[in-house]
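Sat 14:20. Reprocessing the chain from the morning session after the first attempt stalled halfway. Input below, unchanged.
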Amino acid sequence: MVFRCARRPVKAKTNKQEGADLALAEFSDRIRQKAGSSSYHLSKSNVLARDSYVKVMHPVVCASPNASVVYLGEPFIHKHYKRHNDSLFDPSDDLDVQRKENHKGRRYCFIAGILDSLGMECQVVALDIFRGGKSTAKQPKDYHAMFNHDYFVKWFAKLLAVLGDMGVANAYIVMDNAKYRERR
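Finished this time. Tokens:
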């Protein structure tokens, strides 16, 4: 995976690159007009949360330029997920009738850190993937039962070990306030 980091200097673009960017922007505008009027935008609460985060982090990152930042995330995706119900099949093919799945399928859960450091490329660290959705004696059906405080503490120790092996000693770790981070 390749991530673009906001703290990296951007190289000057050549005329060919600028022309390609313009052509891509025009193409995406045409596609958006054809596809419909759906658009994605941040809600007012998300804009306020983002702005307050930037106000807190900007002085921290600027005060210690050698420090790394590790962003923690725990996203998930369902097995039968299709963005906008997209399909690889030709809709004009009358013989191939696609039906929509009745269920979302198993949930694939990920936990990882994204390391942003001036000394190295951004990278995913301590990635762990697990599945939920099938009740067996070894694996509970609900991912909430799988992803709890004890699991997080073990994973966090793994993250710190990986960062230590990479030589990252001065890092800010940014995480949300999920319930499983607290011992109850």
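The longest strand covers residues 120-132.
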